[in-house]
Amino acid sequence: MIFLSAVLILCCLWYLLKFLAHFSLKIHDLVRKLSLYTLFLAKWLQSAPATFTYTAIFCAFTLVQGTTPQRLINIITNHSSTSIARFSNRPISVFFDSAFWVADHGAGLILYVVIFWTVIAWAERKYGSPRIIFITLSGHILASIATIFIELWAINSGRAPSSLAMATDVGVSYILVAGCAAAILLMKKGMFWLSLIALGAFILFPIIFEHSIWDMGHLFATVIGFIFAKLLLSLSPIRKVSSPRELFEKCRAELSNL
After folding, report:
1. pTM for the predicted model, two decimal places
2. Which of 60, 171, 199, 247 is most enclosed, with most CB atoms within 10 A?
3. Would you list the DSSP string of 63-122?
4. Which helix (H) or strand (E) covers residue 172, if one does?
């Protein structure tokens, strides 16, 4: 909540400064100096539209979670979950309903945003928006289906109660790990192994120590992300994109021509 409020306040302050710049020469000069950085930020956001649009949507959903009575949120998330019951009734739309909710009532939102804005946004620039959307959605949908089959097996074999069919499972984290898997494939050797170890620890430690079915879903989403990213790379190479420094210099040149 504090993070989202800070972003909103900064946006409002910027547009207030732009308005006041019409009446004050000093503020006009300040806005002109800051415009280089806001133009860079705008172009950076535009270079990975799918990632930043998706981040804005799930942040808005998290804002709803934080400002709505807990009982109502539980009803909404249960209705949007990829549970066995919901999958039986709405086998297609359930995957899209669940894709915008952060688990545990938005816990770890800042970490989610940081990873999406850095790792996955970088991957989108390299792969292009259509390919990163395909990879992450495939990870979310196929991992959710695999998790549902594990739940069914657990219930039918008597290893889990029938109430598991109504358990809440939402999918931002599946999309995140599938996107991270795609990004890791593009990294250089040193960063590749470091990131692979970090992602492996994030996924395997909960499986080993908590024995949760949904932690298996993260493993499935990661493997699916690797497979589909590798397949798409074999069909078409990655795109050439400007580095942050090159993009910054382009923004400087663009403003100097105004």
Report:
1. 0.85
2. 171
3. HHHHHS-HHHHHHHHHHHS--HHHHHH-TTHHHHHHTT--HHHHTTHHHHHHHIIIIIHH
4. helix 172-184
